[in-house]
Write a structure and sequence with these properties.
Layout lengths: L26 E5 L5 E5 L3 H4 L11 E3 L3 E8 L2 E12 L4 E7 L9 E5 L9 E9 L4 E6 L3 H11 L6 H4 L8 H4 L7 E4 L11
Parallel strand pairs: 3-10
Antiparallel strand pairs: 1-2, 4-5, 4-7, 5-6, 6-9, 7-8, 8-9
């Protein structure tokens, strides 16, 4: 199979930059046994479910896992973007960093406000190690619940790349990129299929 079979044209004006409101007004393509297609909306789903069907809900809350910071090395500095992808222990996270080429183990990054005269609103980390493709292990100066609170304070919601390329994350995203049944912190990306349930 060739990956080019999955290429298609998607005009920019057809890319929604915000979830639809109300959530269950989202369009849904229904494929019936035998291949018949029907255009429906998510609010039609209860009438399509049958006895014995299984509906799986991901109740994880999305954390503001996208961090912006500055790496300082002597007199040189570089803007760094990091998306947290997996917590490793109380103070270390695996992250995708851009530009990853500018980072080396031992580098210090200040996420959040870069005003060096005031540490409020800042979160410091050391690059513990570096992997292939921009992956880094970040060892934060805080750990446990203190680290969680700092990430919530300085981070922003990780938007899908096709949206992030067209607009910056904002405070509204903390609500709209959560499912209505999210209860447990920990997701680093929105469970987009679940965003349509009310």
């Amino acid at each position: 199979m060739q990956t080019s079979l999955f290429d298609f044209d998607l005009p920019d004006n057809l890319i929604a930059l915000r979830p639809v409101s109300p959530r269950d007004a989202a369009r849904m393509l229904v494929v019936a046994p035998g291949g018949a297609l029907a255009d429906k909306s998510v609010r039609d789903l209860p009438g399509l479910l049958q006895s014995g069907d299984c509906l799986v809900l991901n109740d994880t809350r999305v954390i503001p896992a996208a961090l912006s910071g500055v790496r300082k090395r002597g007199d040189a500095s570089a803007q760094i973007e990091a998306n947290l992808i997996a917590r490793l222990d109380a103070c270390r996270w695996k992250a995708l960093a851009r530009p990853g080429k500018r980072l080396t183990p031992g580098d210090r990054i200040r996420f959040g406000h870069s005003n060096t005269s005031c540490l409020m609103g800042a979160l410091d980390a050391t690059v513990d190690s570096k992997g292939e493709g921009g992956e880094v292990i970040l060892a934060f100066d805080l750990s446990g619940p203190d680290l969680d609170m700092a990430i919530a304070s300085v981070g922003v919601m990780p938007l899908p790349p096709y949206i992030a390329a067209r607009r910056a994350a904002d405070s509204q995203d903390r609500e709209t990129y959560q499912t209505v049944y999210a209860t447990r912190d920990g997701a680093v990306a929105a469970p987009t299929a679940g965003l349509h349930f009310t």
